[in-house]
Amino acid sequence: MKRVLSLFFLFVLLLVGCGQDEELNLSEVTGLVSAKDRSRILVIENVTKEQLAELDLENILNEGLGTAIWFEVEDQELFEDLQIGDKVLVEFDIVAESYPGQSKAISITRVEE
């Protein structure tokens, strides 16, 4: 009887533990849209509009001015509306460990300067 009761409680614990909705722990980055490619935008922290105008993208990346991540943008209308030099806040989940990083944007919000 104890064995059956123990198995029952173990089964209940498994169901409760597996049934929980996990909340996403999103990360965010604020920076300038520095490039666009197909349905991706490159967002770089700590880069100014002046640097974007004066330096080519390779030099900016080599300077290591801040976090740089290519974000996949699913909303085609939003992608087309974003312009190089726009300041944005991007929420994301997982980033590929390359430089620049690569991720899928969960949300993108323009930030007023």
Question: Which key features would you list for this structure?
Answer:
113 residues; OB fold (Dihydrolipoamide Acetyltransferase, E2P); 4 helices; 5 strands; 5-stranded mixed barrel; alpha+beta
Summarize the structure.
With 113 residues, this protein is α+β, with helices and mostly antiparallel strands. It has helices at residues 2-19, 49-54, 57-63, 76-81; strands at 27-37, 40-44, 68-72, 87-92, 101-110.
Would you mind describing this structure in some detail?
The protein is an alpha+beta fold. The chain has one domain (24-110): Nucleic acid-binding proteins (OB fold (Dihydrolipoamide Acetyltransferase, E2P), Beta Barrel), CATH 2.40.50.140. 33% of the residues lie in helices and 33% in strands. It contains 4 helices and 5 strands. Strands 1-2-3-5-4 form a 5-stranded mixed β-barrel. Strand 4 (87-92) and strand 5 form a beta hairpin. The mean pLDDT is 85.
